[in-house]
Design a protein that fits this description.
Blueprint: E1 2-6, H1 13-24, E2 27-30, H2 31-41, H3 44-55, H4 61-75, E3 79-82, H5 88-100, E4 107-112, H6 115-123, E5 125-127, E6 134-136, H7 163-185, E7 190-194, H8 199-214
Parallel strand pairs: 1-3, 1-4, 2-3, 4-7
Antiparallel strand pairs: 5-6
Helix pairs in contact: 1-8, 2-3, 4-5, 6-7
Length: about 220
């Protein structure tokens, strides 16, 4: 299946994508994860994207589309797009690329959640710079405050999880990414799930939607 999963930052797209991938045997293509990996590796793309990511803005379309097109090609027609396309222009370019390959998107899963809930989730996150483990100051506390359970490293707050950046990221999403929902709504591909529910309940609802499409 060719699936798009959209929703504001902090809606749980990464977690749900991983579960969908395990169930469907598809490739998880996260634009955010790929960009962060490029940045950490110091590639040319990573260097260009860094300033946009640290400020909470969107990476320019020409950079992200080129990167994702390559990843989609490697997926062989079975993928879950996590946080892409982020603009209508990206959606249009994705449509063209898929049409050229004789493929199309099967479903767009829209995770809907209130901004206040997202802000609480994101600003409270803390990450381990060594193993990548993720904690939360209220909902997923480490055994020792401020330190990773696995390797004892000092936990840090990612630059894009700081309050001022979260506010900017949400504003950016509503302005530039939310219209992508409308773009695919015209084709009847959009189905919406309440992302404020318990994680397992959200997964259950998403699986039900996917099973309906398969039938």
């Amino acid at each position: 299946m060719r699936i798009i999963l959209l929703g504001p930052p902090g809606a749980g797209k990464g977690t749900q994508c991983k579960r969908i991938v395990e169930r469907c045997g598809a490739m998880h293509l996260s634009s955010g994860d790929i960009l962060r990996a490029e940045r950490a590796a110091g590639t040319e793309l990573g260097k260009k994207a860094q300033s946009y990511m640290d400020s909470g803005g969107l990476v320019p379309d020409e950079l992200i589309v080129a990167m994702m097109a390559g990843a989609i090609k490697k997926a062989g027609g079975k993928f879950v797009l996590d946080g892409f396309p982020r603009t209508v222009v990206q959606a249009q370019e994705l449509d063209k690329a898929l049409e050229k390959a004789g493929e199309k998107i099967d479903i767009l899963l829209n995770l809907k959640i209130d901004d206040s809930v997202v802000a609480s989730r994101m600003t409270g996150r803390r990450s381990c710079p060594v193993c990548g483990g993720v904690y939360h100051i209220e909902n997923l506390k480490p055994k020792k405050d401020g330190f990773c359970d696995k390797d004892g490293s000092v936990l840090v707050q990612r630059p894009d999880d700081k309050p001022e950046v979260v506010t900017n990221r949400l504003a950016t999403y509503h302005k530039q990414t939310a219209p992508v929902i409308d773009h695919y709504m015209k084709s009847g591909l959009v189905t919406t799930v309440d992302a404020a529910l318990d994680i397992d309940e959200v997964t259950k609802l998403l699986f039900a939607k996917l099973d309906a499409v398969k039938r």
